[in-house]
Amino acid sequence: MSLVTPLAVCPSIADTSTKLSPATVETLDNNWLLLNTEKINILFPAGGKHPTFLWWYTDNASRVYVVKYQGLIEYFTYDNTFYKRIYEAVAEKLRERFIGPKENNLPALLRNRVINALNNWHLPMLHFNIGRWELSGPSNITKEENVIGVGFNFTLVEVHQPRFEFAEGNIIIRCRFYYEPTTESAHGNYTYTVDAGELKMDLVIRHWEWNVDKINDLIDQLAEYDIIIPKRKASLALWVNLSSINITKLELAKSNPENIETMSNAQNMIVEGKTASVVENKTLTEDEQPITVQKRIQENYRVHLAKTDGTIAGFFKFVASALHIDPVSGDVTNVVPVKAAYISAGHHMRLFIGYEYFGNQTLEHDPSLGIEKVPSLISLNLVVLLIVTTVAIATMVAVIKWKRKTINIVGVR
């Protein structure tokens, strides 16, 4: 059995050798754009909807993979750097935890200032579907006068949610789709290769107004009354939903993308090489689970959305670090690790990518999606054959040792 197990959990093998013909871009129903190549089809909204991507393997259209960007959530990091619902940056939670009964000891003026500051907090979550997104492009990407890909951007231009006006024009998702393997540079800090047929994205967040900053001016005064509140203990989580649907549900998904998860029939996903069931909805009964694999800054976390007959899988991946960029000079001021957590949500997965506090800097992070070849799981017949062979070898070794003879078996360790 020790010979069998490593083969059964063999890692994914990306197809990096393909060079694609230029994509065709088709408008569907005036609200969706379809990017089509001989390897992959990618569908995304064009009518002001928030970024949602549906994609499938051109030669096997039965399975459609889905990534939907849900929103941004500010959460406390007093106890844990990974996102959990119980840590969302709600003013009342901070008040209960740090101020509590000591609030009655405060002078009336200071107490009123604290209350006013907390009342000015926005909700922890900015919902991407409560607003309007502007799509620019698609347009060709050229290199040395040759067209090597196509690019487009989503920008949040209107927010219909109280106290989030600061986000208008400041949340951007830049997208590039290349026809050949292409090397990109993260502002000169490191390089990475984007495969042909992979949709590379940059999440850009500018001028975020942090709830925790609205209490900073009062923290020193509160400390004089034995109320100790750590400064800037907050992170921002990008929430995306990962699912997969049957191709027969595609038209319904286009007409009702907000409920696309209810159409999903995904059973399992693979998180960093480990199978995770997504059948059960655990969002009200369990905490989010952290992804704890340590990576170098230029490497990727990876989630496989599903397997179709053991050969082709959709993936969503993201670089293990994010950049803090000076909004004036454009220089990178810090390269920081990202955190990730996930939870089964009923035939789909909620994934939360956490970015540590970046103040008034611009945050930039690099997710991507695509499809890749995956080796088939080992067959039952091969399992039986390997077991029989292992037992035969063990028996032979035992017999020869019993006869006190020396043996050499090539390839057995």
Description:
This protein is α+β, with helices and mostly antiparallel strands. The chain folds into 2 domains: 7-86 and 121-373, Beta-galactosidase, Chain A, domain 5 (Distorted Sandwich), CATH 2.70.98; 382-413. It contains 6 helices and 24 strands. It has helices at 5-8, 91-99, 108-119, 216-223, 250-255, 380-402, and strands spanning 24-28, 32-36, 40-45, 52-57, 60-76, 125-127, 131-143, 146-159, 171-178, 182-185, 191-194, 199-205, 234-246, 268-271, 274-277, 289-290, 300-308, 312-319, 321-325, 332-337, 339-344, 349-356, 362-365, 367-373. The strands form 3 sheets. Strands 7, 8, 9, 12, 14, 15, 17, 18, 19, 20, 23 and 24 form a 12-stranded antiparallel beta sheet that branches. Strands 1, 2, 3, 4, 5, 6, 13, 16, 21 and 22 form a 10-stranded antiparallel beta sheet that branches. A hairpin with a 2-residue loop joins β7 (131-143) and β8. The protein is globular. The chain starts with a helix and ends in an 11-residue tail after the last helix.
